[in-house]
Amino acid sequence: MDSLTQITLGAAVGEVVLGRRVGNKAMIWGAIAGTIPDLDILADFATDNISATAFHRGITHSIPFAIIAPFALGWLVHRLYGQEWSKSKLAFRDLGGVYLFLVVLCSIGAAVLPIPFGDVLPIGAVVSAGIVGFVMVSWVYRRTRKLGAIEGNPSWRAWSWLFFWGIFTHPMLDACTAYGTQLFQPFSDFRVNWNTISVVDPIYTIPFLICVIIASRLTRHSPKRAWFNRVGIALSSAYLLFTVFNKVRTDRIFERSFVEQNIDYQRYTSSPTIFNNILWQAVAETDTAYFEGRYSLFDTQKRVRHFGHLPKNHELLAPYQNQRVVEILKWFSDDYYNVSMRGDTLQFNNLKYGTISYDLEEDEEPKYIFSFRFKDENGQLVQLPSEFERDPDAFGKLWERLKGVE
């Protein structure tokens, strides 16, 4: 999910754990905990974007990380609000130590990925981790030295419990999206993706955020504070349950439509389109092609009107099957991909996450959310800059299709 949603969820669970004892500090640290897993995007500075794609939603989004990291973070925050720590020269050492501990955890996740990151990673990772670490630790050190001790400072176990729930709920929510989460890193790179909610869904986030903001404006001992926070959690949880029901219902419609249109599929995947849970898309695989279609809850007929035909063209990758970029992209797409050639440029199109084309003609090639362009240089695939074409009418087309067709 998007960062605002994860911050809101983290703040809400932080309030549940320690809101009565430390007030808005619980929300702040819960929001920070909810943000920590997404710091894996810093891999973009350490390696190429394809390797960073494999690393994202990996070890920092795993259940083992959610169990181990909170011990160090809880200990650190407990020390932060202690009587002497904020004025001690040992503060910088403690901050640096916890940062290195987290870097080691992330390095374990990178090292055990069955897909190699390539030669660029070790040097880039060391340099990036050092620069980012110095900046972050220095910034936090300057900020925390201005904070004083708090009365009734919760134990490190209590703070660890807050960080556990703030971090743990992050990947569990991400697992509901099509992008998926490697919950079992470093033991497995399997991506858990339940495909029930979009990576950005305002209906989930906005009511939740409003409730959390209202709760934050009330005193920590006010019964209404806890009530508003729980209402936000209840509303968001109820909506998640609705998305599960919605997926089951739409999947039945997709399956029936496949049969009606004589599409003998081997498997298929479905997920909601961006910003909503009303318009759904599905991709079905056959021996030689994929068929992509959409269904809106507002469609007058309980069927998919048309499935687009996308040839696989997997044979175009035959000369490059053992190359690192191909292995990563096939894994990332869960083998839902097709390949196209434009002159001497090979394009890998990830179909698992759908397209951003809502009004295609029957033979028109769609615009893919994830596509990668390569050029052959002496038998090796070399990535080219993306040629993503921004469609100024994309949201308008999405809205029109979402409203349904007769």
Radius of gyration: 24 Å
Helical proportion? Answer: 40-55%
User: From the helix content, strand content and strand pairing, which structural class follows?
Assistant: alpha+beta
Instruction: Tell me what portion of residues adopts beta-strand conformation.
Output: 5-15%
Figure out the total of helices: 11
Q: Which quaternary structure do these chains form?
A: single chain
Report, as a whole number of angstroms, the end-to-end distance: 32 Å
Return residue spans where pLDDT drops below 50 for at least 5 consecutive residues.
Answer: 117-121
Largest sheet: 4 strands, antiparallel
Describe the overall structure:
It is a single chain. With 406 residues, the protein is an alpha+beta fold. The protein is 48% helix and 14% strand. The protein is built from eleven helices and eight strands.
Task: Write the topology of this structure.
Elements: H1 3-22, H2 24-35, H3 49-55, H4 63-80, H5 90-112, H6 120-144, H7 156-174, H8 202-216, H9 223-260, E1 267-272, E2 279-285, E3 289-296, E4 308-311, H10 324-332, E5 337-342, E6 345-355, E7 368-377, E8 380-384, H11 394-402
Antiparallel strand pairs: 1-2, 2-3, 3-4, 5-6, 6-7, 7-8
Helix pairs in contact: 1-2, 1-7, 1-8, 1-9, 2-7, 3-10, 4-5, 4-7, 5-6, 8-9
